Amino acid sequence: QVQLQESGGGSVQSGGSLRLSCSASGYSSSRHCMGWFRQAPGRGREWVATMDTDVTTNVAYSVKGRFTISRDKAKSTLYLQMNSLTTADTDMYYCAAAYALRCSMWSGDYNYWGQGTQVTVSS
Q1: 3-8: long-range contacts (C-beta < 8 A, 24 or more apart)?
Q2: Rounded to a whole number, what is the distance in angstroms from the first to the last CA of the chain?
């Protein structure tokens, strides 16, 4: 059973940076692709970034050039480095894993989810 735990959220001023971490257990880097989604109250989960099992990364256009997804394989930890944050980035951020070689942008394809970490950006 894959278990995911996010950390690193918090409050920051516009223009600031945060790094989110997702610690994974029961996970295989060769069988599970992983990604980050975000969600505002009353809205669906929005794809942010993914990493396939071959370490190919994809980042949503809305955060491209500001957000970077990476992982520490030895620590079984996925990261999301977020720079130049704006108020529009305020959301609950979720880590997700799918039993697949390549990740999709659709949240319904993911089998496992963390509980989320809140990111709040103030102007």
Answers
A1: 3/112, 4/95, 4/96, 4/97, 4/112, 4/113, 4/114, 5/95, 5/114, 5/115, 6/93, 6/94, 6/95, 6/114, 6/115, 6/116, 6/117, 7/117, 8/117
A2: 40
pLDDT (tens digit per residue) in 99-119: 999 999 999 999 999 999 999
Helix/strand/coil (H/E/C) assignment for every residue in 42-103: CCCCEEEEEECCCCCEEECCCCCCCEEEEEEHHHCEEEEEECCCCHHHCEEEEEEEECCCCC
Q: pLDDT confidence of 71, banded at 50, 70, 90?
A: very high
Helix or strand run (H / E) with residue 105: none
What percentage of the chain has pLDDT greater than the value 70? 100
